[in-house]
Amino acid sequence: MVDFVDRAQELEAAHLERSLLMRPCLSNGRISLQRCEACGDEIPEARRVAIQGCELCVECQEQIERMSRR
Ligand SMILES: [Zn+2]
User: Fold this and answer.
1) Is the pLDDT of residue 27 over 60?
2) Whole-angstrom Cα distance, residue 56 to residue 4?
3) 10 CA distance to ligand 1 centroid (A)?
4) Is the pLDDT confidence value at 3 over 80?
5) Which residues does 62 contact at the CB level (< 8 Å), separation at least 6?
6) What residues pair up with 35 in beta bridges, in sequence order?
7) 25: alpha, beta or left, given left = phi > 0 and alpha = psi -120 to 50?
8) Distance, CA 69 to ligand 1 centroid (Å)?
9) DSSP labels, 22-35
10) Residues within 5 Å of ion ligand 1 by Cβ?
11) What is the whole-number distance in angstroms between the Cα of residue 35 and the centre of ligand 1?
12) pLDDT in tens, 34-57
């Protein structure tokens, strides 16, 4: 039980990372782009596979979501 907190934080960090990676894209197309449409950065393969029609990297996706929330 001693390292329970450490383990929990570890799991939480892993979960956060995964949820960012798997964040749904705005596009509903079928084919994911290899590179972000907005900044040209490469989109991680895990994200491309998980989200069909993904066109934005995690950073750009977040920015757009942040802007659209206002
Ligand atoms: Zn981008």
Assistant:
1) no
2) 36
3) 27
4) no
5) 20, 23
6) 42
7) beta
8) 18
9) TPPPS---SSPPSB
10) 36, 38-39, 41, 57, 60
11) 8
12) 999 999 999 998 988 888 888 899
In the numeric block, the tokens 């570890």 are attached to: 10
**pTM score > 0.85 for this model?**
no
The angle that helices 4-21 and 58-69 make with each other, rounded to 10 degrees, is 80
Please say if the pLDDT value at position 28 is more than 70: no
Q: What is the whole-number distance in angstroms between the Cα of residue 56 and the centre of ligand 1?
A: 5
Encode pLDDT of 9-25 as tens digits.
888 888 777 776 666 65
d(CA 41, CA 36): 5
